[in-house]
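Input sequence (387 aa), recorded before submission:
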Amino acid sequence: MPRFANLPPLAARTRALLARAPVFDAHVDALQRALDLGHDLGRRTPGQFDLVRARAGGLGAVVLVSWVDAPFAGNGARARAEALMEEGRRLAARHPERLVLVGNGEELDSAQSCGRIAGILGIEGGHALEDSVEVLDALFERGLRVVTLVWNNHLSWIRSCQDGAGPEVPLGLSALGRRIVARMGELGVLVDLSHAGERAFFETLDVAPRPVMASHSGCRALHDHPRNLTDAQLRALGERDGLVGIVFHPGFLDADARAEEARVRGTPCYLAARGAGDTARFLKQSALMQAKAAPLHLDRLVDHVLHALDVAGPRAVGIGSDFDGIQRGPAGLEDAARYGRLAERLLERGVDEATVLGVLGDNLRRVFTAATGPGTAAHARSFAREL
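Predicted structure, token format:
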């Protein structure tokens, strides 16, 4: 019996809410398992995300991210991104009854009206563009619709939120970075500012012609972590009709949880975990982290959602789980079968239904639609019909 089948039932009010507004997750990293481990994400798999559990959890749309690890920078980053994107296309071809890849809001709505999950191809790490606007164009032609501009490694055209940038790294965006952002607006590619340095964040907002998002971040006011956004950043997203997707990673949500994860990473069993490659090792380490670390209460995630709603506004907050890119979620949100738990807790803490619907998916649906078309190229042809 699948594990999600034994979850306590959601309240009738929560079930009705999920039926009205399918969940839209701004950031999922599961394609690595498909490429590196041969996992068929259309079936029940190890890890945190697959289409079976996602459908059980009420998911209606998801950004399937091609995360390009920093070692690929300058050495096959584009090829790695293309291989991961191809896994997304294979998944849709193998399971057309579960998933359809979409390129704009109209196609997203069409997929959901047919009862299928709308999949959106994204890239995490601008080094996959290999310093080239032409590569961006080529990846757009292959279905790319979301780009996280930078990961934790600095690039020649954008600074990340991490320390260690040398003099060759711009303080924010370089001239090339501004051209890349402008071109994304022309094509109809949603700009993602999670991982970006603060100056790069604001300079991108000044350049971007369409709404942007920070797909998987938390609130700096609640936990002073470099991956989280300041109130000024949250406010700016709201003022520009953008969005923050609140991440599920306990280490980004809470200082004590971050310390607890560091403790587990120093234990002999964690250090001894092995696998045939980085993805297999990460999967084993994630299972250990989930089992050994003291749980983080779901309310801490809700605290971040509520703070973002207060600062950015009710139209500017969504979710970006980072499933399969994180080693564990808060208690009750361990995998994609459990999105409804967040909705239920938001209702229990007094959030009105319209706001909960926005957080679950309506807000991101609006931002994605505004960012992806019609642009100079976004509606030149229908991406979904060509698959």
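Checked by second reader. The longest helix spans residues 353-372.
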